[in-house]
């Protein structure tokens, strides 16, 4: 890991500090909102009493919460362009660049394993797939593709992934179950994860399908590649005119319409990361990025966004802290009427549940956790420090 201090004249966006002039405040803003939303939905006081907007879809469909992870991978794609474009131009730098990509991917996987073992040190049932492992794989694969291919080839790869994934899930028989299907426990992806990891090392939700499984990581790469294409064109055009802005909005609308039409035969589904889910979420991601860029970087309307930007500058650091703080609150135990309870459950039982509605009592602890995480992130922001993997 590397700590970087920004100079006062440098702007604040992107995932690395290669050249300040290339950094986008709007990209940090977009990333910051995504990270803050991710932390908020991951730490409710009671998983059974949440506002619908903060819940994932039961299976098919897409709630606002289902957009978060896809947005983050899309942002990774955009960031790859802004941090690697200059090095990509020099072929002699490719070996070192590819090694750096591999090293960062391994570090992310290692951090994911560390956070899991911190909360539950049980190797026999350790979940191998997860959010950080998926981020690591998607970053590594998509960054390598970016370095070694042209934009046209990247578009072709996206097309092959989305169409190929559709045919694999819908027409390849599932060993031991029969015809292809899209049911939680009997999809080809669920079978592959059980075959590779065994059930003990997967997400334990009773469906035997890991939402960050191997097969669904392939279309997740397509999400990042769409971000790469968006970043490439944005960096080239700089939205110099409203015509360029219109092109992005039209592209967003086209992806949205394709997803809605295709949804009739291939449902939008986050757990499966279906091709329609890729297109549907990418349409919103492109729209949000472009509007943010136009308002913040072009029009300069950036007042009051610093708290959000702070999360965007150190996203992985925020995620790591979010893995440590709730774990500590669960691990600390106190005596309550003769019984040991975690500090987290004690606070919920005595300070929130008796005084608020069930949904609000679930939301307030999540907001407090977000504030606890925000404190060190804000300190890093004020000191102009980026902790870079």
Structural account:
With 389 residues, the protein is mostly helical. It contains 13 helices and four strands. It has helices at residues 25-42, 67-89, 94-119, 131-148, 151-171, 188-197, 214-237, 242-262, 275-298, 306-313, 315-331, 343-352, 358-382; strands spanning 2-5, 333-336, 339-342, 385-388. Strands 1-4 form a two-stranded antiparallel sheet. A hairpin with a 2-residue loop joins strand 2 (333-336) and strand 3. Helix 2 (67-89) packs across helix 9 and helix 4 packs across helix 7.
Strand content: under 5%
Distance between the termini: 5 Å
What is the general shape? globular
- Cα-atom Rg, whole angstroms? 21 Å
Number of helices: 13
Q: Tags for this entry?
A:
about 400 residues; mainly alpha; two-stranded antiparallel ribbon; two-stranded antiparallel sheet; 13 helices; about 65% helix
Give a brief rundown of this model:
The chain has 389 residues and is mainly α.
């Amino acid at each position: 890991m590397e700590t970087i201090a920004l100079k006062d004249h440098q702007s604040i966006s992107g995932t690395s500090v290669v050249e300040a002039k290339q950094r986008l405040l709007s990209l940090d803003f977009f990333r910051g909102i995504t990270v803050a939303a991710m932390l908020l939905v991951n730490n409710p006081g009671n998983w059974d009493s949440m506002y619908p907007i903060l819940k994932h879809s039961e299976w098919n469909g897409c709630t606002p919460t289902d957009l978060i992870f896809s947005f983050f991978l899309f942002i990774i794609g955009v960031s790859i362009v802004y941090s690697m474009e200059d090095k990509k131009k020099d072929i002699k730098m490719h070996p070192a660049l590819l090694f750096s990509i591999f090293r960062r991917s391994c570090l992310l996987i290692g951090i994911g394993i560390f956070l899991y073992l911190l909360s539950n040190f049980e190797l026999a049932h350790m979940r191998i797939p997860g959010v950080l492992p998926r981020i690591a794989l998607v970053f590594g694969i998509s960054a390598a593709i970016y370095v070694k291919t042209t934009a046209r080839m990247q578009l072709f790869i996206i097309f092959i992934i989305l169409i190929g994934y559709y045919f694999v899930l819908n027409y390849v028989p599932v060993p031991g179950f029969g015809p292809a299907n899209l049911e939680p426990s009997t999809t080809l992806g669920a079978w592959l994860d059980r075959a590779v990891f065994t059930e003990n090392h997967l997400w334990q939700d009773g469906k035997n399908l890991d939402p960050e499984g191997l097969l669904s990581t392939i279309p997740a790469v397509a999400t990042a590649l769409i971000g790469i294409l968006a970043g490439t064109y944005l960096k080239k055009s700089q939205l110099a005119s409203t015509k360029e802005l219109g092109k992005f909005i039209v592209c967003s609308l086209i992806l949205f319409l394709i997803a809605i039409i295709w949804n009739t035969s291939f449902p939008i589904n986050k757990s499966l990361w279906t091709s329609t889910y890729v297109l549907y979420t990418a349409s919103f991601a492109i729209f949000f990025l472009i509007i943010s860029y136009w308002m913040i970087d072009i029009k300069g309307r950036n007042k009051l966004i610093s708290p959000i930007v702070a999360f965007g500058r150190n996203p992985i650091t925020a995620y790591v802290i979010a893995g440590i703080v709730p774990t500590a609150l669960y691990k600390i135990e106190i005596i309550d009427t003769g019984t040991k309870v975690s500090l987290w459950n004690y606070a919920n039982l005595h300070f929130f549940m008796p005084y608020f509605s069930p949904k609000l009592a679930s939301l307030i602890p999540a907001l407090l956790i977000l504030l606890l995480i925000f404190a060190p992130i804000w300190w890093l922001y004020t000191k102009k420090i980026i902790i870079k993997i």
